[in-house]
Amino acid sequence: MSLSQIIKIDVKRFFEVTPIIVLLCLLLQIGIWVVLVFQSQQTLERNENKKYREAKEWNDIVRQSQLIKNYQYNQPSWLIFSADDRSSPSKSFIIKGQASLEEWQALLDSIQQEVSVSLASLQWQYMSLEGWFGELEFHVRSPKKTHPYYDWLPVRMTSASSLNTPWRLVSVIRVDKKVSALLQNQNDGYWVKEGDWLPSLGVKVHSVSEERVTILAKNGQKRVINRQSSGGDK
What we know:
With 234 residues, this protein is an alpha+beta fold. The chain is 32% helix and 31% strand. It contains 4 helices and 11 strands; from the N terminus they run H-H-H-E-E-H-E-E-E-E-E-E-E-E-E. A hairpin with a 2-residue loop joins strand 5 (167-175) and strand 6 (178-185).
């Protein structure tokens, strides 16, 4: 008996298209289509999110630039303020003048409160009894919810007067593992969390817990503000 007689293959039956095969093919096509649609949707969402972030960053910079234009009209007489008008909106500005360290500190603190900037260059020159001459260039940045406080003065200030004013821990809120506190200084309130800077007061929030908040002055002096207490230095 030959091999062809032993193995017989019904070619027509082997290639017969049954409803099950049709169904499997349809399911395979649907599966491939779903994957392609899902990938396209993800790509579209990423592109839309990128466009949204870029538009938001641009709008933020435009608002910052407008703040700078308004800000330059409310400066002390000793200060020369010039914004870069080569681009619109302005992305940098220069301040220069001669004043005491206390006046410079108040100015630089107010800048960090009003606008989000990064330092591009600085130059200081001591003028003896006439104070300090300074020239600082800043780049405008997209604002963030929190940003570090920078000390751009030529020498370290030793004043810690803000620590000696009345402080009160009003309220504490915990969300997951993050703790925020409402501090009151004089008649002003500040919502803070660990690492925040309060430029107008020249203090950094060192730690926040449900029972106390610890703040640090620029000279390193520490004060602990306890809950239901005006606080005390430790």
